[in-house]
Design goal:
The chain is of the alpha/beta class. About 40% of the residues lie in helices and about 15% in strands. The longest helix has 24 residues. The relative contact order is 0.15. It binds glutamine.
Length: about 500
């Protein structure tokens, strides 16, 4: 299965039909996708092929647009009408939303065909996809390892060439970190660039949706269709969306004299040595193309994970209060009274990590502790944002690693939440500051992909994609793909709820 751009070309030239390609995606989802456990639900074959045939007819009439008939998958956090939306939680198992997320609607209206909903950490809380009620996702490069999280199913599906592209959400790194660990390109937009309407909320002041694809070109095509103001999300920004795909060609020129900051705190001894070397090599490649490198200081970075943990937990405890056994999803059997209905529905419906966050969040917001934790974290957030914006006045963008290591083994960090949260050390800052950032494949260590992260000022998605695209013109890391297992082998990661 090709990427978005190649698929669009095949369709345009009449060398393939959307019907064939959609069927191929479904077949691959049922075989290799099952082994990786990257889907939670798949589109009903006849219904989706019907949509594919309609897009083939649209193209035949000359009424197609670039994305007409191109298959994609949505993270199972986006509300869809045709398929259930579970958020990988027992709480929402089989839940059918009455609404469709704006992102889903826009990509559908742009002509894309949704073949399935991808696995994820429950309610997007996690960095390894081990927190899914539907079982862990395997990394296609090594099935013993995690794909990253929380958009691990989307990243694994794109990396394993099961689907041209997928959507994800990023609250603290959940697009970029799995993109890095699976060797694909993932972009987290500026807060407010993409509508959150119809995305199950985790931490509303941090959540953003974005694309995962093979290349910056593919990410640009998707983001262009996803982004823009939405009357259904008052935090979306009114400014018009740049034509990201058209802007890519200017990347070469844009690099001349481009000031790239290398944050010292992202490249110190805590970073895996080989990952650090690859990031430095990538920076030098851009320097050879005319960029000007400079070391910069982000002195508040050490506080980012702590502030994120407090703020994300606080917002999650509030957002997840709606799952009470009355209005949505799971309800316990035969409660004795109303408080037992609440208590047991939530106890039985949520997994361990979600409960940990709800309890932490409730604590940091409670009377007597709110000032010490929540309000303090908001002040730190402000310092982090101000420092980023200041640094991005002296430079045009920042370059560093996406994640401190390549993919770790399943089970390695799950019993040690603090260690797990530290996987997000380079990504959470952008969410706290609302900045856009992209992760692109930048090499391999021990046969596992490594991601480079580019961070820009608000609404610099066009610039980030230009630089990422130019980097991909000069390198071929993004073209590498994991080996295909022989057909018919049983799955490594279990695919059914406990
Ligand atoms: N890994 C981070 C967390 O567990 C980020 C999750 C996300 O971005 N949704 O909270």
């Amino acid at each position: 299965m090709q990427g978005v751009l190649e698929t669009a070309r095949l369709l345009e030239q009449g060398d393939a039909s959307s019907e064939e390609l959609t069927l191929d995606c479904l077949r691959r989802a049922r075989s290799h996708g099952r082994r990786l456990n990257c889907y939670i639900s798949l589109a009903e074959e006849e219904a989706v092929l019907e949509q594919a045939r309609a897009s083939d007819q649209r193209r035949a009439r000359g009424a197609g647009t670039p994305l007409t008939g191109v298959p994609l998958a949505h993270k199972d956090i986006f509300c869809t009408r045709d398929l259930p939306t579970s958020c990988a939680s027992r709480m929402l198992e089989g839940y059918r939303s009455p609404i469709e997320a704006t992102v889903v609607r826009r990509l559908r209206e742009a002509g894309m065909i949704c073949v399935g909903k991808t696995n994820m950490d429950e309610f997007a809380m996690g960095s390894s996809n081990e927190n899914s009620y539907f079982g862990p996702v395997a990394n296609p490069w090594d099935p013993e390892r995690v794909p990253g999280g929380s958009s691990g199913g989307s990243a694994a599906a794109v990396a394993a060439r099961l689907v041209p592209a997928a959507t994800g959400t990023d609250t603290g790194g959940s697009i970029r970190q799995p993109a890095a660990l699976c060797g694909v390109t993932g972009l987290k937009p500026t807060y407010g660039r993409v509508s959150r309407h119809g995305i199950v909320a985790f931490a509303s002041s941090l959540d953003q949706a974005g694309p995962l694809g093979r290349s910056a070109e593919d990410a640009a095509l998707l983001l262009h269709a996803m982004a823009g103001p939405d009357p259904l999300d008052s935090t979306t920004d009114p400014r018009p969306v740049q034509d990201y795909p058209a802007a890519l060609a200017a990347g070469k020129e844009r690099l001349q004299g481009l000031r790239i900051g290398l944050p010292r705190q992202f490249l110190d001894e805590r970073l895996d040595a080989r990952v650090g070397e690859l990031i430095q090599e990538s920076a030098r490649l851009l320097e050879q193309q005319g960029a000007v490198l400079r070391e910069v200081e982000l002195t508040h970075q050490d506080l980012a994970v702590a502030a994120y943990c407090v703020i994300a937990a606080a917002e999650c405890s509030s957002n997840l209060a709606r799952f009470d056994g009355v209005r949505y999803g799971y309800r316990c059997e035969e409660p004795r009274d109303l408080s037992e209905l609440y208590l047991r529905s939530r106890t039985e419906g949520f997994g361990a990590e979600v409960k940990r966050r709800v309890i932490t969040g409730t604590h940091v917001l409670s009377a007597g502790y709110q000032e010490a934790y929540y309000l303090q974290a908001l002040k730190v957030r402000r310092l982090i944002r101000d420092e980023f914006l200041q640094t991005l006045e002296e430079t045009d963008l920042l370059l560093g690693p996406t994640s401190p290591t390549a993919a770790f083994r399943r089970g390695e960090k799950i019993a040690d939440p603090v260690n797990m949260y530290l996987s997000d050390v380079y990504t959470v800052g952008c969410n706290l500051a609302g900045l856009p950032a992209v992760s692109v494949p930048a090499g391999f260590t021990g046969g596992l992909p490594v991601g480079m992260q580019l961070i820009g000022p608000p609404f610099s998605e066009g610039l980030l994609l230009q630089v990422a695209h130019r980097y991909q013109e000069l390198s071929d890391w993004h073209l590498q793909h994991p080996p295909e297992p022989p057909p018919g082998e049983p799955g490594q990661a279990g695919g059914t709820p406990p």
